């Protein structure tokens, strides 16, 4: 194996060509052009027909969802009976709770099994 390193090459800058000066002539003026308005001579040109008469608007049947006039008011109820206020909530009769809603007895304690016997450790040899 050789310890030769690749030689570095220096890039020589290449001179750019000079940009030539270009003279641009001015744009020629746009000449004014007069356009005569379009007006056909009297008695010439196409005849415009008369427009047909506008038809009357169509008759739309009344919708079943259209608002209707209010119905006659119902006759007032006779006010001969005096107002009786309802009984207050404190006097409501409270029935006794059925047996199904009684507090159940707590379940029996879970039986805890006895721990297993200790693993026998052998005696070390003498």
TrEMBL record:
Organism source for this protein? Polyangium fumosum
Spell out the protein name for this chain: Uncharacterized protein
The segment annotated Disordered runs over 1-21, 35-79, 95-126
UniProt lists compositionally biased (Pro residues) regions at 49-79, 104-126
The lineage's top-level taxon is Bacteria
């Amino acid at each position: 194996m050789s310890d030769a390193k690749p030689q570095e090459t220096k890039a020589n800058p290449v001179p750019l060509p000079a940009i030539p000066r270009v003279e641009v002539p001015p744009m020629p003026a746009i000449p004014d052009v007069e356009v005569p308005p379009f007006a056909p001579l009297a008695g010439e040109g196409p005849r415009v027909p008369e427009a047909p008469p506008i038809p009357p608007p169509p008759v739309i049947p009344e919708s079943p969802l259209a608002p209707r006039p209010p119905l006659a008011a119902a006759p007032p109820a006779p006010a001969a009976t005096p107002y009786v206020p309802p009984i207050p909530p404190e006097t409501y009769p409270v029935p006794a709770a059925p047996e199904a809603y009684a507090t159940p007895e707590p379940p029996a304690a879970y039986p805890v099994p006895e721990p297993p016997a200790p693993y026998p450790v052998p005696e070390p040899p003498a």
